From TrEMBL:
PANTHER family, sorted: EXTRACYTOPLASMIC SOLUTE RECEPTOR PROTEIN (PTHR33376:SF5), PTHR33376
GO biological process: transmembrane transport
NCBIfam families: TRAP_S1 (NF037995)
Record's protein name: TRAP transporter substrate-binding protein
Lineage: Bacteria, Pseudomonadati, Pseudomonadota, Alphaproteobacteria, Rhodobacterales
Organism: Falsigemmobacter intermedius
Amino acid sequence: MPGLLVTGGGGFKRIAQHGIEVFTADAPGGERAAGHPPGQQIESARGRGRSRHHEMTLSSAIAVSENILRLSTSGAVLTVHNNKANCKQFSMTVTIGATYSPCAPTESHTMKKTIALLGMTAMSAIFAASGATAQEFRLNFGHYLSNSPFVKVEQDFAARVEERTNGRVKINIVYSGGLGKDSELLGLVGRGAIDLAGVVPGYYGDQLLYSKALQTPFVFNSPAQAIEIADYSFAELQPFKDEMARLGIHRLFHQPVDSYYMTGKTADCQDPEKLAGKKIRSFGALIPHMMTAVGATPVTVPPGDLYEAVDRGTIDYSFVNMGNIDAYRLYEAGKFSCGPAMSIAGHMVVISDRTWKRLPADIQQVITEEAAAAQVAYVEWSNTHVAGAVERVKAGGGEILELSPEALAAWKAKTPDLLDVWVEDLKGRGQGDQAAEVAKAWRERTAQ
């Protein structure tokens, strides 16, 4: 698994800048900067080099594994104490691609810090040297969601890959943005800083120009249909293939998110006519059009912040699927959930092209087969899980109100044709003809 590595003279331990990860290795006579249980917040981590000249302090890190630390504050600061150089202490904010000479150079001593790209093979060698893992390939999977039954299919996928490769592959899922925020994961996995990621296309409207259309309201009549269109698009439509190649990722499967509901403190959500002036959670480039069509104000709120936003009245209604209403216990913050209002594809699980190309053919085959099996299992799971989620929401005091077909039809009638809106957007980006062909193919398939 690749990452960004900061190295320094005098046997410095290795650390990396904010946003990727921090790799540490033992040095004779030095303290371990890692060795903490995964997920543990660390206020500081110290490390000494092979000589007495240098030691470093890393503040505000989080343990990803026992040999990996990730800076958890933006603007990472590395403080180095140097007792035998011209400066006794300096601090610097490390930046990708930069070289630092923070002390005034002398004829006998110049300190430099260089940031370089560390490939998966080299990193595996570090782990092997430290005895950190017996796996041939340890793949870090960054997820924006919390660890809940809502991602069980992805956990099963990881377990099956490990089982079928006889332990040669270990997929380590890190939840709740532990390897990067929901807005960072696409870039991280595309660069190979992490190996896999759960990516919400709507969060990357300027990068996932085609994939984001799978999260267009009023196009699909069910989550299963959205997944059928997704599978068809990535297998048969060239713009989708080109998009994955351009971003350096390989799509494995999609989450078939169950239908979306609005959750808040009042029952006004049952009538679209009463949504005017209400602040409703939204995301992406197309879903806001759905909200403004009925006079509501779209507000971007990450899933993990929805409970507090509804509870404090920052927004009037959250807008997520029933599975996440259950997982985040949103029914405690707002009693009423109205829907279903929208069926779309959820996040997609992708693997970095850099990681993919380094995997042997037999492991690629296992991952491909298990991804296909996970896609089928996910659709089946979503159909059964939603019933259980509904029961848990009701048992927790939530009340589910049906948005009638007539009300939904009236809402759709007020909303512009959002596939046409998408095509117009891509026309302005020089992709109008390709987008029009995609929209035509989708209309034909969804009409069947």
